[in-house]
Amino acid sequence: MERNNNLHRQVASLRQSLFDQGYVDEQFIELEELQDDATPNFVEEVVTLFYNDSARLIHNIDQSLEEHPLDFAKLDNFMHQFKGSSSSIGAKKVKIECTKFMEYCRAGNVEGCKGTFQQLKREYAVLRKKLEVYFQYARPAGPTDTASYRPK
């Protein structure tokens, strides 16, 4: 019982740090509230779908950034999809980088797009690692009151 309590505390601490460090926002809570006994891994499944879908988008954006001249409308469209997916799981820092990228697209700023895309990929990778650790601990901890955190 004590081990389980410690595990729940660890999970709560990991989860809190995702919010405190600005990696996720309120949308993550919304996802958690949809999770129940019938779908105990709902959040993890949605996040996995996000990473599967976004891998394709990253590939498409990478390829499009190699084209000459750049097709800013196509890049903006890909990034709009990426931003929507990021928003759906509450990936706050990734979403911020998507917005910056789209602003550079609209301004026709090649270097801004490329630099922001590199930063977006870094934020995306860090979030992925943090969520992997979180879910790794959350699975064995089992159900808990996950929606108790409210952003400041």
TrEMBL record:
Q: What is its main location?
A: cytoplasm
Task: Tell me a Gene Ontology molecular-function term this record carries.
Answer: protein histidine kinase binding
Record's keyword terms, sorted? Cytokinin signaling pathway, Phosphoprotein, Two-component regulatory system
- InterPro entries, alphabetically? AHP1-5/YPD1, HPT_dom_sf, Sig_transdc_His_kin_Hpt_dom
Give the source's domain of life in one word.
Eukaryota
User: Which compartment or compartments is the protein found in?
Assistant: Cytoplasm, Cytosol; Nucleus
Keyword Phosphoprotein set for record? yes
Q: Name one Pfam family in it.
A: Hpt
Keyword Phosphoprotein listed = yes
Sorted alphabetically, the Gene Ontology BP terms of this entry are:
cytokinin-activated signaling pathway; phosphorelay signal transduction system
Could you tell me which residues carry Phosphohistidine?
H80
Query: What positions does the domain HPt occupy?
Result: 39-134
Any one cellular-component term (Gene Ontology): cytosol
Function statement: Functions as a two-component phosphorelay mediators between cytokinin sensor histidine kinases and response regulators (B-type ARRs). Plays an important role in propagating cytokinin signal transduction.
Q: Which PANTHER family match?
A: HISTIDINE-CONTAINING PHOSPHOTRANSFER PROTEIN 4, PHOSPHORELAY INTERMEDIATE PROTEIN YPD1
Domain comment in the entry: Histidine-containing phosphotransfer domain (HPt) contains an active histidine that mediates the phosphotransfer.
Q: What is this protein called?
A: Histidine-containing phosphotransfer protein
Tell me what organism the protein belongs to: Solanum bulbocastanum
Q: What is the lineage of its organism?
A: Eukaryota, Viridiplantae, Streptophyta, Embryophyta, Tracheophyta
